[in-house]
Design a protein that fits this description.
Blueprint lengths: L70 H7 L9 E4 L14 H13 L2 E4 L1 H5 L10 E9 L18 H11 L8 E4 L9 H12 L4 E4 L12 H17 L7 E3 L14 E4 L2 E4 L2 E3 L22 E2 L12 H10 L14 E3 L15 E3 L1
Parallel strand pairs: 1-3, 1-10, 2-3, 3-4, 4-5, 6-9, 11-12
Antiparallel strand pairs: 7-8
Helix pairs in contact: 2-4
Length: 368
């Protein structure tokens, strides 16, 4: 999502004109060349359900060995899987910021380290939106999303590792320093993913990321304002990008981020449509602001209008809308934040949330 002038946030009904799992239960190996892996490989272990688990909320699985939630256990750790989840939106990562939505490598690193120290564990947008949240007890999910597939997000050096100061390299380095911080993110890309024009380099980038648990998904072919397009053109720019991602070997996109946060006039085209004989469907659609998302298990969860929080400080309109404000707010209101019970087979919550869960998930609840 590129910046657009004159955008402002509005709470409640998200202002779409505004600009942004699991921790490995095993030990995270050191960054570099671990024993038993090819030279140049980075030790990233993908987790979560398969791309085939479709629907508004996918099955949560059979549970982790030795962890079964009970009311007593949930109360002890303060579990609340009906709480709020920050979905953070990033754009370019530049040593010298050009636009207000840019972040420097130092700012990205500081924010990721802050999340790690506070007990957050990254999950992909697809894992979050479909309810495939499998993280340790007492931790909190966070969704890290990067728009546009900018060169500052990912590139490989001659050593086969992500280049220094790219988003992926920073994420991996933070995960090495904080082993509980799962190094995954979602990249919504356009027609030249990560600035590569050569199809083989694009294919290699997509393969490197998806094999390590990252999500690479559809952000339209040319990043247009969908509201300004005809119905046919909306479907065309989505299908063209879908076809490109298929040629590059990416799994079918489960999620979609609206360019500029702008919905098409026919809103359903953001998640279902067809063009030139090709159909598309997304399980979730993400906006461009401006507050944490409710739990994917909540009745009020709208999978086609998922808000995101722009990564930024507290200057100007960001005072109450961007990541620094919201992360501080969640720290100050821990009872409102999603806290895992460590049991992927159940959904634990305080009594006050009992009536807010989707009816089909009530059989999975642990209430205290």
């Amino acid at each position: 999502m590129r910046s657009a002038p004159g955008l402002t946030h509005v709470i409640g009904i998200i202002n779409v004109a505004v600009m942004v799992v699991a921790v490995v239960a095993l030990l995270v190996l050191p960054f570099g060349e671990p024993a038993g892996e090819p030279a140049g490989e980075v030790p990233v272990r993908p987790r979560g359900g398969s791309a085939g688990e479709r629907g508004p909320v996918a099955p949560r699985g059979d549970g982790a060995p030795g962890v079964r939630a009970t009311p007593e256990w949930a109360r002890e750790i303060g579990a609340n899987e009906m709480g709020l989840v920050p979905v953070i939106m990033y754009h370019r990562i530049l040593r010298k910021r050009v636009a207000g939505i840019d972040r420097t490598p130092g700012q990205l690193r500081a924010e990721l380290e802050r999340l790690a120290r506070a007990g957050y564990v990254p999950v992909t947008a697809a894992e979050f939106a479909t309810g495939r949240i499998d993280i340790p007890a007492g931790t909190h999910p966070v969704v890290l999303t990067f728009d546009d597939g900018n060169p500052s997000h990912f590139a490989l050096g001659a050593d086969g590792l992500p280049l220094p100061d790219t988003a992926v390299r920073i994420l991996l380095e933070v995960a090495q320093r904080y082993p509980g911080f799962r190094p995954v993110a979602t990249f919504w890309v356009n027609h030249d993913p990560f600035g590569f024009r050569d199809r083989e380099r694009q294919r290699a980038a997509v393969r490197w990321l998806t094999e390590r648990g990252f999500e690479v998904a559809n952000h339209t072919y040319g990043h247009p304002d969908l509201r300004r397009l005809s119905k046919k053109k909306v479907s065309e720019v989505i299908v063209r990008q879908q076809r490109l991602l298929e040629r590059l070997g990416a799994p079918p996109s489960e999620t979609f981020a609206l360019p500029y946060g702008s919905r098409p006039k026919k809103r359903s085209l953001a998640h279902d449509g067809s063009w030139d004989g090709t159909k598309y469907h997304f399980d979730a659609v993400f906006l461009a602001g401006a507050e944490p998302s409710v739990s994917p298990y909540a009745k009020s969860f709208d999978r086609y209008n998922i808000p995101r929080i722009q990564s930024n400080g507290k200057n100007g309109e960001c005072r109450k809308w961007c990541s620094q404000h919201w992360l501080e707010w969640l720290d100050e209101h821990p009872r409102e934040r999603y806290t895992s019970d460590g049991d992927p087979a159940h959904i634990s919550m305080p009594q006050r949330f009992r009536g807010k869960i989707l009816a089909k998930l009530r059989r999975l609840t642990v209430v205290y």
